[in-house]
Amino acid sequence: MSKNFKAELVGCFGQPVAENPTGVMQEAAFRAAGLDWRYLTVEVGPENLADAMRGVRAFGMRGLNLTIPHKVAVIDHLDELTPAARLIGAVNTIVRRGDRLVGDNTDGKGFLRGMRQDAGVEPSGKRIVLLGAGGAARAVAAELLLAGAADVLVVNRRVERGERMTADLKASAQGPIRFEPWVGTYSVPKETDIFVNATSIGLYPDVDAVPAVSLAEACCLVADAVFNPPETGLLRMAREQGLPTLDGLSMLVYQGVIGFQLWTGQDPDEGVMKRALAEALEA
Ligand code: NDP
């Protein structure tokens, strides 16, 4: 019987990247599926991205994740974008199809899957307030519009960034999206169904930071994109007010689940991925 000692390679490029836990959950899922695949977490600076992407082609890597600061810059090194990546204007996942590298974006899809599976909430027809206008917010907003949300209200500190994101998505997704500047403490309106923090407020090491928002009027699902720590100050505040919550681990796990499916063509054991991630972040 012939033997095969060659592993298939995927990975992640970013800077900083050392605290990114995605590799732990992907490798746990590869092992559970009996696949001889490796996930390489590699520190790549902006000046080395072009060479690193030539390396991806030279090594025949099956796919890749991108994190800060490469999600937009990597587009120049790809052969094709999926409609979602084009809409969002950023790539977090690459899939190799033959010799072609195809850029996709699974952040928003991961968030929506978590909302459906873990919180039991269907975004179609819902009124959403989305705090933030960075990469994560763009991905979440684009998928909410594609899923048929009734209203996406973007609230952001920097007006120009919030207006640009809203105008871009209104033109490309043709959905009900609008913008309000974030001034002082933002009171989440009572008709809101879902409130999402897609800013980096509360992210380690600044774990005591909480976005200046009031949930006093609200009776909505409160979701946070921040996954480190999983229980952010915002989610604690929401829980103390009796509101349902959805943490950033859910978004991270499901974007990983979708990545695994795109790369291997198989369904991973989601429980294995969740446990591996939770253990990696606790350790
Ligand atoms: P960006 O740097 O692209 O955007 C950051 C956003 O946070 C901007 O809207 C910025 O506002 C806002 N912000 C940051 N600090 C403040 C502050 N002090 N006051 C008000 N607004 C602030 O980051 P990303 O969009 O890539 O990431 C955002 C968060 O989402 C991070 O915590 C990241 O870890 C998380 N994330 C989680 C994922 C998951 O799978 N769970 C996936 C991807 C991201 P302004 O424009 O005014 O500067």
Q: Which ligands are bound?
A: NADPH dihydro-nicotinamide-adenine-dinucleotide phosphate
The count of strands amounts to 14
Low-pLDDT stretches: none
* Top-tier CATH class of the largest domain: Alpha Beta
Helix and strand layout, with pairings?
Elements lengths: L7 E7 L7 H11 L4 E7 L5 H10 L4 E4 L13 E2 L1 H6 L4 E5 L2 E5 L2 H11 L9 E5 L3 H12 L4 E6 L2 H15 L3 E5 L4 E2 L6 E4 L15 E2 L6 E4 L8 H8 L4 E2 L1 H17 L5 H13 L1
Parallel strand pairs: 1-2, 1-3, 4-6, 7-8, 7-11, 8-9, 10-12, 11-13, 13-14
Antiparallel strand pairs: 3-5, 5-6
Helix pairs in contact: 1-8, 1-9, 4-5, 4-8, 8-9
The structure holds NADPH dihydro-nicotinamide-adenine-dinucleotide phosphate (NDP).
NADPH dihydro-nicotinamide-adenine-dinucleotide phosphate binds next to helix 4, helix 5 and helix 8.
